[in-house]
Amino acid sequence: METSLRYSEDSKALRIHAKEKFPIDSKTHLQVQGELDTRTGTPTNFCALIRRFYPDLLTSLGVGLRYDKRDKGESEGAAEFTFSIFNFQRDQDVRLKLGYEVFEQVPYLQIRENNWTLNADMNGRWNIRFDL
Protein backbone atom coordinates (compact mmCIF):
# COMPACT_ATOMS: atom_id res chain seq x y z
CA MET A 1 0.00 0.00 0.00
CA GLU A 2 1.26 3.46 -0.91
CA THR A 3 0.58 6.24 1.60
CA SER A 4 1.27 9.96 1.51
CA LEU A 5 0.64 13.19 3.39
CA ARG A 6 -0.93 15.96 1.30
CA TYR A 7 -1.62 19.66 1.76
CA SER A 8 -3.19 22.10 -0.69
CA GLU A 9 -4.17 25.74 -0.84
CA ASP A 10 -7.88 24.93 -1.14
CA SER A 11 -8.35 22.53 1.80
CA LYS A 12 -6.09 24.16 4.43
CA ALA A 13 -5.84 20.78 6.17
CA LEU A 14 -3.36 17.94 6.10
CA ARG A 15 -4.79 14.85 4.40
CA ILE A 16 -3.69 11.22 4.60
CA HIS A 17 -3.90 9.44 1.24
CA ALA A 18 -3.66 5.68 0.65
CA LYS A 19 -3.52 3.75 -2.64
CA GLU A 20 -3.45 0.04 -3.43
CA LYS A 21 -3.03 -1.71 -6.79
CA PHE A 22 -4.46 -5.19 -7.40
CA PRO A 23 -3.04 -6.99 -10.48
CA ILE A 24 -5.53 -8.41 -12.97
CA ASP A 25 -2.96 -9.51 -15.54
CA SER A 26 0.59 -8.51 -16.54
CA LYS A 27 -0.56 -5.21 -18.12
CA THR A 28 -3.75 -4.42 -16.19
CA HIS A 29 -4.52 -3.61 -12.57
CA LEU A 30 -7.37 -2.35 -10.40
CA GLN A 31 -6.33 0.75 -8.46
CA VAL A 32 -8.25 1.81 -5.33
CA GLN A 33 -7.43 4.96 -3.39
CA GLY A 34 -8.89 7.07 -0.61
CA GLU A 35 -8.16 10.16 1.42
CA LEU A 36 -8.86 11.22 5.02
CA ASP A 37 -9.02 14.84 6.21
CA THR A 38 -7.09 15.07 9.51
CA ARG A 39 -8.93 18.21 10.62
CA THR A 40 -12.44 16.71 10.44
CA GLY A 41 -11.57 13.00 10.59
CA THR A 42 -13.81 12.28 7.60
CA PRO A 43 -13.06 10.69 4.22
CA THR A 44 -12.88 13.28 1.45
CA ASN A 45 -11.98 11.25 -1.62
CA PHE A 46 -12.46 7.72 -2.96
CA CYS A 47 -11.46 6.39 -6.37
CA ALA A 48 -11.52 3.02 -8.13
CA LEU A 49 -10.20 2.57 -11.65
CA ILE A 50 -8.86 -0.03 -14.01
CA ARG A 51 -5.55 0.91 -15.63
CA ARG A 52 -4.07 -0.82 -18.69
CA PHE A 53 -0.45 -0.30 -19.75
CA TYR A 54 0.65 -0.28 -23.38
CA PRO A 55 4.45 -0.64 -23.21
CA ASP A 56 4.94 -0.45 -26.99
CA LEU A 57 3.32 3.00 -26.99
CA LEU A 58 4.88 4.05 -23.64
CA THR A 59 1.42 4.95 -22.35
CA SER A 60 -1.42 3.80 -20.14
CA LEU A 61 -5.19 4.23 -20.09
CA GLY A 62 -7.31 4.38 -16.96
CA VAL A 63 -11.09 4.28 -16.64
CA GLY A 64 -12.90 4.53 -13.35
CA LEU A 65 -15.10 6.37 -10.88
CA ARG A 66 -14.15 8.98 -8.31
CA TYR A 67 -16.02 10.62 -5.45
CA ASP A 68 -14.54 13.82 -4.05
CA LYS A 69 -16.32 15.70 -1.28
CA ARG A 70 -14.97 19.04 -2.58
CA ASP A 71 -15.82 18.54 -6.29
CA LYS A 72 -19.46 18.35 -7.28
CA GLY A 73 -19.63 15.87 -10.16
CA GLU A 74 -16.98 17.49 -12.32
CA SER A 75 -15.46 15.59 -15.23
CA GLU A 76 -11.72 15.23 -15.61
CA GLY A 77 -9.47 14.49 -18.55
CA ALA A 78 -5.89 15.41 -19.30
CA ALA A 79 -3.05 15.09 -21.77
CA GLU A 80 0.39 14.85 -20.16
CA PHE A 81 4.04 14.83 -21.15
CA THR A 82 6.49 13.38 -18.61
CA PHE A 83 10.26 13.71 -18.58
CA SER A 84 12.34 11.82 -15.98
CA ILE A 85 15.93 12.60 -15.01
CA PHE A 86 17.44 9.63 -13.21
CA ASN A 87 20.32 10.32 -10.80
CA PHE A 88 19.87 14.08 -11.18
CA GLN A 89 22.19 14.16 -8.21
CA ARG A 90 23.48 11.15 -6.32
CA ASP A 91 20.44 9.03 -5.30
CA GLN A 92 18.08 11.77 -6.46
CA ASP A 93 15.63 11.34 -9.33
CA VAL A 94 13.57 14.22 -10.73
CA ARG A 95 10.43 13.98 -12.84
CA LEU A 96 8.82 16.90 -14.66
CA LYS A 97 5.28 16.56 -15.92
CA LEU A 98 3.52 19.13 -18.10
CA GLY A 99 -0.17 18.63 -18.65
CA TYR A 100 -3.35 20.19 -19.93
CA GLU A 101 -6.67 19.57 -18.17
CA VAL A 102 -9.14 19.25 -21.06
CA PHE A 103 -12.45 20.13 -19.37
CA GLU A 104 -11.16 23.11 -17.36
CA GLN A 105 -8.77 24.10 -20.18
CA VAL A 106 -5.92 24.73 -17.73
CA PRO A 107 -2.22 23.89 -18.17
CA TYR A 108 -0.43 22.45 -15.14
CA LEU A 109 3.01 21.40 -13.95
CA GLN A 110 4.24 18.67 -11.62
CA ILE A 111 7.77 18.49 -10.20
CA ARG A 112 8.64 15.29 -8.35
CA GLU A 113 11.86 14.59 -6.44
CA ASN A 114 12.02 11.14 -4.83
CA ASN A 115 9.36 11.47 -2.08
CA TRP A 116 8.29 15.10 -2.62
CA THR A 117 5.82 16.30 -5.26
CA LEU A 118 4.68 19.84 -6.07
CA ASN A 119 1.68 20.40 -8.36
CA ALA A 120 0.58 23.81 -9.67
CA ASP A 121 -1.71 25.08 -12.40
CA MET A 122 -2.23 28.36 -14.25
CA ASN A 123 -5.29 29.21 -12.09
CA GLY A 124 -3.03 29.52 -9.03
CA ARG A 125 -4.05 26.22 -7.45
CA TRP A 126 -1.26 24.15 -5.88
CA ASN A 127 -0.66 21.19 -3.60
CA ILE A 128 2.30 19.45 -2.08
CA ARG A 129 2.71 15.75 -1.29
CA PHE A 130 5.17 13.69 0.74
CA ASP A 131 5.19 9.93 0.08
CA LEU A 132 5.74 7.84 3.20
Automatic annotation (TrEMBL):
Coarse class of the protein's main subcellular location: plastid
Protein name: Outer envelope pore protein 21B, chloroplastic-like isoform X2
Function summary: Voltage-dependent rectifying anion channel that facilitates the translocation between chloroplast and cytoplasm of phosphorylated carbohydrates such as triosephosphate, 3-phosphoglycerate and inorganic phosphate (Pi) depending of ATP to triosephosphate ratio in the plastidial intermembrane space; in high triosephosphate/ATP conditions (e.g. photosynthesis), export of triosphosphate from chloroplast (outward rectifying channels), but in high ATP/triosephosphate conditions (e.g. dark phase), import of phosphosolutes (inward rectifying channels).
Subcellular location: Plastid, Chloroplast outer membrane; Plastid, Etioplast membrane
Key words, A-Z: Chloroplast, Ion transport, Membrane, Plastid, Plastid outer membrane, Porin, Transmembrane, Transmembrane beta strand, Transport
Species the sequence originates in: Durio zibethinus
Cellular compartments per GO CC: chloroplast outer membrane; etioplast membrane; pore complex
Keyword Zinc-finger: no
Protein family (similarity comment): Belongs to the plastid outer envelope porin OEP21 (TC 1.B.29) family.
Superkingdom, taxonomy of origin: Eukaryota
Stretches of the chain forming a coiled coil according to its record: none
Record InterPro entries: OEP21
One GO term (biological process): regulation of monoatomic anion transport
